[in-house]
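Entry, Tuesday afternoon. Goal for today is a structural model of the target with NAP bound, before we commit to ordering more compound. Inputs were pasted exactly as handed over by J.K., no edits. I checked the ligand SMILES twice against the vendor sheet because last time a stereocentre got dropped in transcription.
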Amino acid sequence: MKPSRRSILKSLGAVVASHWVLRANHVFAATPMRIGVIGAGSLGGTVGRLWVEAGHEVMFSSRHPEQLASRIRGLGPRASVGQPKAAAEFGTVLLLAIPFEALPQVGRELRSAYRDKIVLDATNPWGASRSDVYREAREFGVAQTVAKYMPGARLARAFSAVDATVVETSATRSAGRIGMPIASDDAAAMQVAARLVRDAGCDPVIVGNLTAASVFEPGGPGFRAHLTAPELRKRLGLSDAD
Ligand SMILES: NC(=O)c1ccc[n+]([C@@H]2O[C@H](COP(=O)([O-])OP(=O)(O)OC[C@H]3O[C@@H](n4cnc5c(N)ncnc54)[C@H](OP(=O)(O)O)[C@@H]3O)[C@@H](O)[C@H]2O)c1
């Protein structure tokens, strides 16, 4: 059967659209990003440094930036230090690496700065606490609790399930690069998370949406597994294509 003019135009439109999506992705992937690291302790400090080395511009936050400045100076001109609000405003992408207890306060105080931005969420309710935010994480899930306190953020769970020391050595490990589980409800946030995981010397393992992130919460099979990507996929029952 001869294809109709309408169906030819429709297919052509799809080809042009996919060309532009691929092109946009290519340009995006080749461009250094401006990243705000909210909480530059063990995890944020380590991952932020790896991103600076990968060519990104990173502002590391501290409530006492003067104490952090000497550590950051050695990283060169792509690294800077500021208060949490300044780092959140600086970044087009943010890494959230604060203690879980600080989530309600940070979520409230930085709201205007993170709204509509991609936020890679590495936080965990780690250790014992009687606080409401820990109780909510136990009851409703970690990702869901972060989403509640960070309204308007385009969240991806990333860097939450691997120790900072393992991220630091991932690219040079004799056992192979570490598989980093990531999850998001937002396709663009997932894509950015995957790229920044690679740029930190790890291999992304796409687990699914934020609900699926429960498999790499503390206590889940993907938490601190410290496996390569194929090994982690196997443990989580994911196909090789994921
Ligand atoms: N360490 C790891 O291996 C690892 C791995 C995966 C996930 N995580 C998760 O990542 C998060 C950070 O862990 P970490 O080990 O990096 O902790 P950390 O070394 O204690 O660093 C936390 C940082 O958060 C900042 N901070 C604390 N309270 C804050 C507040 N109210 N407002 C703004 N900033 C605040 C602190 O900066 P200032 O005091 O300078 O302001 C500090 O540098 C936790 O949720 C943890 O569960 C950690």
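The pocket of NAP is lined by residues 39-44, 62-64, 84, 97-100, 102, 105-106, 122-124, 126, 160, 163-164 (CB under 6 Å).
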